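Moderator note: this is an archived Q&A kept for reference. The question asked for a predicted structure of one protein chain; the sequence and the answer are reproduced below.
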Amino acid sequence: VRFTTFSAVAGLGVNELDYLHDSESNCIGALLSHIAAAEVGYQAATLYGCGLSEEERQEWGAALDLLAELGGRKDQWLEDRTSSSGGEVNNDFKWFHVFGHEINHRGQIRWLRTRATSRPS
């Protein structure tokens, strides 16, 4: 999922990342930031069993250690249940949501990319 998202934004400059198609749109940069924020929130909830600290909210440093942390977990960890705004769900459900969330926004990014890169300079 992440490799394909990186491919969708490869080579874009600041002008393309900040491009707003209309007053109802988000820019690609904002969508990337939103994807990262959702991932960091789920990392804190599922990997560390807590909410984000004030520092994490400022820096999103937890995102740097994601693969190493997930790689160290046993498969049974996916079945661990934790509370969520809609009740109790397992970690598998939460991480499936993180990946689906990114895939959904990647579609928006690709749509915006075609418009941002095809406009006159």
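Archived answer notes: The longest helix spans residues 91-118.
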